[in-house]
Amino acid sequence: MKHYLVIFLFAFSLQIGVSQTMTWLPSNKVNTGCKDMSNAKKNILCYKLQYVPEQTGVLTSYTTGFWADCLNGNSNIVLNQSCSMIDNSQQMPACEKFGKTLLNCSGNSGAKASNFVKKGVPIYLHQICFQIDSKQEVNVMEDDLLDLTTSIDVEGETAKTFFPTYKTLSFKNDQWVDFVKTDEIALTLQKKFSKSSLKWTPANETGNGFYLIERSSDNRIFNPIFRVEDGPDHKVDAHYLFTDTDKMIGEAYYRITYQSLSDLNTVSNVVNVIYESDVTVELYPNPAIDYINLRVDSKDEIVTYKIFDSNGLLRANSKVKSNELHKLDVSSFGSGVYNITIETKENFVSRKFIVIAL
């Protein structure tokens, strides 16, 4: 009878052990626990360690041991940190000998306020991050010697040690979706003088993304000029607004891209505008020797001119009346090429002239 009782108790203890688990989940899919440190542009993938306890109480510590594949002969672990306890983690690369890194993910001194666990309710203990290039993968398996253990102060009982189960997982760099055009952001433009105001409807926001405002002069190569974080703090009447105050002449193209770690990137339609100068500049003689004549025709009564040498050094800076001829003294300038800029309230014009010193 005692023999059968021992077998029954052993089987029962195994059943209890199997009911509690540990597993790694992509951090950008988990909204609780420590901050997601994933970075798609740098190919950094982060995972949080989910633990499903078998008892209710205060989790005071956890100790784990994993083997993670090396990539290209090197350990690719960039972060190994506890989410809510004093971190006691370390990693020991053994890439040359085993092609793997021994990964110890551990924490202790768990307090009731932040580490109270409830039977059957998942919590997130730890976060690890790997730098994994596209199409590569890292297998993370349990180390049989270190094992996986948790310590829980069960109410009304002494502290108990548990041994969660774990299945080997493969971390693959396929969760980041290449740039894909999904539902378009509706972008409109309104031009006033030399400024353009952009207005667009929100994308399918995730709460951890941003809008990148891009500008091009040829509708082929776009460069970012401003970034707007998503969220209600930046919206005006359920739309986003941005005004480009850069002074330009010629044609410009604009588009908006919404970038997020946990969703498809979205691109808007392209809008364009032509910036025409309302400023006419006369500059003669060119080349100049002692002086140069300047006339600026503009709707502004007063305009500002600045003269720079080829090294970018400011040589002259003054305000003059528009629609009048002005004689500028350049006799003290050495021989060389100079740049004169004319600034009005709405425009910016630049011209080059040559000085020949006798």
Main sheet specs: 9 strands, antiparallel
Distance between the termini: 120 Å
Radius of gyration: 33 Å
Number of helices: 3
* Number of strand segments: 28
| Sequence stretches where pLDDT stays below 50 over 5 or more residues | 1-18, 175-183
Which word captures the global form? elongated
The residue fraction in helices comes out at under 10%
Please report which band the strand proportion falls in: under 5%, 5-15%, 15-25%, 25-35%, 35-45% or over 45%: over 45%
Kindly state the mean pLDDT as a whole number?
81
| Class from helix and strand fractions | mainly beta
Outline the structure in words:
The chain has 358 residues and is mainly beta. The chain is 7% helix and 49% strand. It contains 3 helices and 28 strands. The chain has helices at residues 2-18, 95-98, 112-115; strands spanning 21-26, 44-52, 57-69, 77-82, 86-87, 90-94, 100-108, 116-117, 123-131, 137-142, 149-154, 159-162, 169-172, 187-192, 195-200, 210-216, 223-229, 240-244, 250-259, 266-267, 271-275, 280-284, 291-297, 302-308, 314-321, 325-329, 336-343, 348-355.
Key terms:
358 residues; mainly beta; nine-stranded antiparallel beta sheet; five-stranded antiparallel beta sheet; 3 helices; elongated; disordered N terminus
Summarize the helices and strands and which ones pair or pack.
Blueprint lengths: L1 H17 L2 E6 L17 E9 L4 E13 L7 E6 L3 E2 L2 E5 H4 L1 E9 L3 H4 E2 L5 E9 L5 E6 L6 E6 L4 E4 L6 E4 L14 E6 L2 E6 L9 E7 L6 E7 L10 E5 L5 E10 L6 E2 L3 E5 L4 E5 L6 E7 L4 E7 L5 E8 L3 E5 L6 E8 L4 E8 L3
Antiparallel strand pairs: 1-2, 2-9, 3-7, 3-8, 3-10, 3-11, 4-9, 5-7, 6-7, 10-13, 11-12, 14-15, 15-18, 16-17, 16-19, 19-20, 19-21, 22-23, 23-26, 24-25, 24-27, 27-28
